[in-house]
């Protein structure tokens, strides 16, 4: 327990926390050098205050802390406190792993509320993006999309709102629909005051030319996908902020945030399955990100929040609180009398 031999301020802070916990300990009243120890503690407290104020301790000050800790260790091991029975501490409850998600719909109760999810397997499910119908008229809501697909001989099995959009009801940032580049990448960095889209890092949910789903930050997308390759993407939605990046929760999210809304998002599992989710109640960004992390997603992206999040499952819950949707994502299947699925007019 030699502080002066420890490299790294974090370790030093741990030692100081131990010292602070020992400062309130009653020493043996018969100790002949009680007053001297009190003086050492007083000096140690001053050093602690200096370090907390951002000042670097000297070698002598570290030596003093080292000696105080050593003296306390001796007093505690040899004095009357050593005879006191040790307090029995119960081991922490075993953390049960979050239930694995299977393909299709699920409803999960978390510590922050209810989350509705739909897992898509891109190898077998026909995932598409939607904005306007064959007459170039925006769908506006999931029900209009569903009715239009029925007229075309298809069925909507699942749908969720897409990403954040512009005031003129156009997709914001990169948007690729069935291989057609409709809106280009937004590479600007105006900061979070300009809206959630710009809370960094933001990112892109995409399915590449090989059919592999990914979520990458906007900066990484710029490096990996030059302009010449954007048109090779099957679909893409840019939004923000990123909820998870390489398995870690966005460092911008505060555990104590009061910014709570209903939220929707998308995550990618290591096996390539896609997790779409919407909350049934108001949650913080961090709480929503934690849902994707606990389900094993490596990356996740926020889609939208407030009154916008909408969610439809065939023969399941239908949560739509907005009639002003712009883009949507959905899984489509062909009906019995339909032998092919046409893409949107180019």
Written account of the structure:
The structure is a single chain. The chain is of the alpha+beta class and 346 residues long. The chain has two domains: 3-82, no CATH class; 104-334, no CATH class. It has helices at residues 9-23, 34-52, 59-78, 142-151, 218-224, 227-230, 285-294; strands at 104-110, 113-120, 126-130, 154-161, 175-177, 180-183, 203-207, 213-217, 235-239, 242-245, 248-249, 263-268, 274-279, 299-305, 310-313, 318-320, 328-334. The chain has a seven-stranded antiparallel β-sheet, covered by helices on one side. Strand 7 and strand 8 form a beta hairpin. Helix 2 crosses helix 3 (59-78). The model is unreliable at 1-11, 21-32, 72-87 and 337-346 (pLDDT under 50).
Provide a short characterization of the protein structure.
This protein is α+β, with helices and mostly antiparallel strands and 346 residues long. The chain is built from seven helices and 17 strands. The protein has a seven-stranded antiparallel beta sheet with strand order 1-2-13-12-14-10-11, covered by helices on one side. A five-stranded antiparallel beta sheet has the order 3-17-4-15-16, with helices on one face. The chain has a five-stranded antiparallel beta sheet with strand order 6-5-9-7-8.
């Amino acid at each position: 327990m030699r502080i002066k031999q420890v490299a790294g301020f974090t370790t030093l802070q741990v030692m100081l926390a131990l010292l602070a916990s020992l400062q309130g300990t009653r020493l043996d009243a018969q100790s002949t050098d009680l007053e001297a120890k009190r003086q050492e503690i007083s000096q140690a407290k001053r050093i602690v205050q200096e370090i907390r104020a951002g000042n670097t301790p000297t070698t002598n000050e570290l030596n003093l802390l080292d000696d105080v800790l050593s003296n306390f260790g001796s007093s505690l091991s040899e004095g009357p406190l050593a005879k006191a029975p040790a307090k029995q501490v119960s081991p922490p409850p075993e953390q049960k792993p979050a239930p694995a998600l299977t393909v299709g719909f699920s409803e999960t109760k978390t510590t922050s509320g209810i989350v509705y999810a739909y897992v898509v397997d891109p190898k077998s499910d026909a995932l598409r993006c939607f904005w306007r119908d064959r007459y170039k008229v925006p769908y506006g809501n999931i029900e209009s999309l569903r009715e239009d697909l029925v007229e075309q001989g298809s069925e909507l099995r699942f749908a969720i709102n897409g990403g954040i959009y512009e005031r003129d009801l156009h997709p914001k940032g990169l948007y690729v629909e069935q291989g057609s580049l409709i809106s280009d990448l937004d590479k600007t960095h105006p900061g979070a005051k300009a809206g959630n889209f710009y809370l960094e890092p933001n990112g892109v949910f995409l399915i590449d030319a090989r059919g592999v789903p990914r979520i990458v930050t906007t900066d990484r997308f710029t490096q990996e996908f030059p302009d010449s390759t954007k048109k090779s993407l099957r679909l893409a939605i840019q939004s923000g902020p990123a909820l998870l990046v390489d398995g870690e929760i966005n460092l911008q999210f505060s555990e104590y945030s009061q910014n709570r809304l209903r939220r929707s998002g998308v995550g990618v599992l290591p096996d390539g399955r896609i997790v779409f989710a919407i909350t049934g109640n108001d949650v913080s960004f961090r709480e929503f990100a934690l849902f994707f992390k606990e389900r094993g997603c490596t990356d996740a992206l926020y889609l939208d929040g407030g009154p916008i999040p909408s969610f439809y499952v065939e023969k399941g819950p239908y949560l739509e609180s907005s009639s002003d949707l712009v883009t949507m994502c959905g899984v489509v299947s062909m009906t019995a009398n339909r032998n092919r699925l046409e893409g949107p007019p180019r």
